[in-house]
Specification:
3 copies of one chain form a homotrimer. In chain A, about 25% of the residues lie in helices and about 35% in strands. A 7-stranded mixed β-sheet of chain A has the order 3-4-5-6-1-2-7, with helices on one face. Chain A has 3 helices and 7 strands. By secondary structure, chain A is an alpha+beta fold. In chain A, strand 5 and strand 6 form a beta hairpin. In chain A, about 45% of the residues are buried. At the A-C interface, helix 1, strand 3, strand 4, strand 5 and strand 6 of A face helix 1, strand 3, strand 4 and strand 6 of C.
Chain lengths: ~230, ~230, ~230
């Protein structure tokens, strides 16, 4: 009888782990989708609070490290530029940042996770602001997550903007090397990153590349490698 | 031994609840995605059947209450306007209504739930219909759901169209106050809503606002408030 | 006491099945989203490896059967046309193939499953390639999956491109019958399908139709039928 109870206990422990992984997966999908809604709404303080203390953001070829670096990017640079420092949406600015196509993979120990997502943007300023501009953008996220005190946080947010298209002329006519990636770091550049990406460097349309996948091929089990 | 079995029974009850919440979450995501596919296909009767008897739709500043109000909106107004009363797609009408970026939260008692979703539309009429028109639209849903006799139904469908863009000219050139929100109710307006939204009123691009989130910040646990 | 243990064992078996279905659902969503990322990146060999040996692809009115037929489509036709035979992205080709709005339904025996997804494309070639072209496309997938040796694979990939729009002029001005569906099979057409779709034939915008749903109405339980 004791043996039977022990066996049941083990089965229950395994189920607990399985359901826990499904719950973690759900929380990470939500975490990323919530990030997307904050971004549209220019809630940059709320975005910074999604990160672990030692989190980092990879953006435009630069790496912003820790809460200090992440605040430099979102508060000092992006909030200043987009909303002139206001934490929230402003008249005539569109910054829609649709999130979709998630592939979330939780580690067996349920303390870390990875997620790939796609982003599709509609952005610009209304003509009545006197700064008319409108563009489409597509990109991919390959992120890492960490669970601290039972709460999932972003460890690495790696955003690769892949193509940018002026609304009127489209991606077929995007100028090559449309904008430069970071080449200088903080503090030389007072709003710059803490380091530069040196491996798997981002490229910009019309250049193309494969952003490596955090998962193996789901049928063959093989990891993709550049050939 | 009895104690051990009792403890196992309690653990199993807890697991049952956890897996039940994951199943509910899946059903609600599907419910909303299915709604989206019905909308594209102008299957308006099928949409009305997704609602609870005392459900409601919030649309364009109006509130349509119960099956009667909901039918007034979908059957008497939208179906009449889009397909001249036909329940299904018609030649040359595009009404694609992409659904994505879900954040679904099931209540602990598993009888109610809330969901935030994003919508991205491609719509218009082909030139061969003689009514050429084409536009992009972006919006957010903040919905409520109820489980009745084990079946999840829509309790509140709150759609906020946030921006509208003519295909040719784009969001940078959308006329302010592009279309009026409801200002008259049924029966004064025979196709109008049963009531008007008075709190968190919708705004239209180039005006912007934050549609409150049904969930707290996933890391800090704080609720967002307008400052 | 034995009775109580037997009852617990049954409850645990039921929970195992429930959590298994949730895990299967997650795997199938990922399988499809991964397919989408491979497609963007022109990783056609990786796509072929997602299929069961007796899998099939339904595309442009044709049915490509088994690994041989599927390779004929992806390797011999699409890879040749898009990347001139290179397995990976090439300069100046955009083939973004966003995947969203999943409705995944796993069969009770957990050996087969069905999934409906939406696709939204941004595609074309950059002007610097000398083959300037850019278009939007929308479509729906209604797929079937099979679990073989514990691994989920695509059994039927049924892609229905619903509308195609030139970037400059939009869906309102798409020429009717923009491109022909397959009318000849392999080997008469050396790159053609093994068979032609004869039921629920695809239609192309400005013609419209309902692609039947693999699921009943989630509230009424009724199956949709053309009336």
């Amino acid at each position: 009888m004791e043996d039977q109870i022990l066996a049941l206990r083990q089965e229950i422990a395994e189920l607990k782990n399985q359901i826990g992984i499904m719950e973690d997966t759900h929380k990470i999908r939500c975490l990323h989708n919530i990030y997307g809604y904050y971004f549209d709404a220019c809630l940059f303080e709320e975005i910074v609070d999604l990160f672990a203390e030692d989190g980092e953001v990879r953006f435009m070829g630069g790496i912003f490290k820790g809460r200090t670096g992440i605040s430099r990017l979102y508060i000092d640079r992006l909030r200043k530029r987009h909303t002139n420092g206001h934490n929230g949406p402003v008249y005539g600015l569109l910054l829609d940042h649709l999130q979709l196509q998630d592939v979330v993979t939780v580690a067996p120990d349920r303390l870390t996770a990875k997620g790939r997502f796609r982003c599709f943007m509609q952005a610009g300023r209304h003509e009545s602001t006197g700064q008319t501009r409108q563009w489409w953008e597509g990109g991919i996220y390959e992120n890492e997550y960490v669970k601290e005190d039972g709460v999932w946080k972003i460890k690495v947010l790696d955003y690769r903007g892949l193509w940018h298209a002026d609304f009127d002329t489209g991606w077929a006519h995007t100028p090559p090397n449309l904008y430069p990636f970071y080449s200088t770091t903080f503090p030389e550049d007072p709003l710059g990153p803490d380091a530069l990406i040196t491996e798997n460097k981002p490229v910009l349309w019309p250049d193309t590349d494969v952003l490596p996948f955090h998962y193996p091929h789901p049928v063959t089990g093989e990891w993709w490698k550049k050939r």
